[in-house]
Amino acid sequence: MSTTNETSAKHSVITATKKIIYIIIALSGIGLILWLDSWFMNHADMPKLGRDMSYGLLFIVGFLTSFHCVGMCGPLIIGYTAKSTANGYKAHGAHILYGIGKTLSYTSIGALFGAFGAVVAFTPYTQGAVGVAAGVFLILFGLHMLDWFPSLSHFRIKTPGFVMRFIGKEYRKHSNPFIIGLLNGLMIICGPLQAMYVMAAGTGSWTEGAVLLFFFGLGTLPLLMGFGFLTSLLSVNLTPKLLKASGAIVMVLGAIMLNRGLAVTGTGMDFNTMLARASLHFSPVVAETQELPSEQIIHMDVLRSGYSPNQFTLRKGIPVKWVIDSKELTPCNNAIVVPQYELEIKLQQGEQTIEFTPPESGVVPWSCWMGMIPGTFIVVDQAAAGADRGRVPAIYESLRQNMASVWHEVKQMFQDDGQSQ
């Protein structure tokens, strides 16, 4: 009896230790992701790459989760394929119609969720809060897909009964593959699809929500349109592993959305601001002059690649004139929010000057309205400030320069390989 108890206790300790290790790995991974996301957004030409990378991840999530979708949607595909063949139509034409309907449905509903997020997020703070909530949901759902914690096994949004009854009724009524594809977007019982719709709402933009679901929908098509051939090549044990891989990517997307939501709220809890605050603590700005100007003038260019520069050192209590030259406006960079100063700046082509006075010292975060392109004001006491406006602490700047150097070497390596070929 005692041996059984000892074995049970030992097993419990091992299980608890594994969970702790999983949590540490997950937190470390999220920290690394946030640091990379912060660096991508602060480096020239990186915001566009960061967005493209997110779209690529969404496509991969769609492809990996489509192995799970085959179990739910496979019979529907068999049904319309059989009916199309019986009516003298070729199967590949039916698949194309189904794919168009499915992608159109996902994209349209993604736009609706993005528009809903925009309505709910009527201020920068609430917009950021929606992004934070969506990010937390994605992280928890990713953990659910990884199946690390049994307590999260039922974590999902319950689909209303009337929606399921409507879908069932319409499926029985229609045999047109295009209509079936359109109805597929209403299959909110699908957990991964729920996560993507929540992510679309978190963007607070109908266009961004539509684009996110478009790439996710594209990712699901290859397997669903040829599942009879592809699934025969897969072992039964491989599908759960692929689903877990998509869960890890969902967590990555959730961490990025959480961080960008925090950036828009202006709480200073986003990774970029905390990194700047830490570097300021360990490497404070040193005075280069004791002269106190009557005003501070800072200049910034708005480019397709981001804001340049996006870090400024300011003196507390001295009026600031922020001269913004909008050279290349995009739907993402065309508005700036500085929540702590209650500034919402709608950018226009050409120069415009924004005036404000920093009341307190510290790190003041700001970003584009979507939280994807961040920046910071480092406000210091008059006696401690230097005259080098735009300068950032040495450790932070050194880190950015080293990363820029590494990125330059990587690009040069690929360019050299391309030329040699």
UniProtKB/TrEMBL annotation:
Species lineage: Bacteria, Pseudomonadati, Pseudomonadota, Gammaproteobacteria, Methylococcales
Keywords: Membrane, Transmembrane, Transmembrane helix
A Pfam family that the UniProt record links to this protein: DsbD_2
Protein name, entry field: Heavy metal transport/detoxification protein
Gene3D superfamilies from the UniProt entry: Cupredoxins - blue copper proteins
Organism: Methylotuvimicrobium alcaliphilum (strain DSM 19304 / NCIMB 14124 / VKM B-2133 / 20Z)
Key word Disulfide bond present: no
Urease accessory protein UreH-like transmembrane domain ranges (all copies): 58-255
Residue spans crossing the bilayer: 20-36, 56-82, 103-122, 128-149, 178-198, 210-230, 242-262
Domain of life: Bacteria
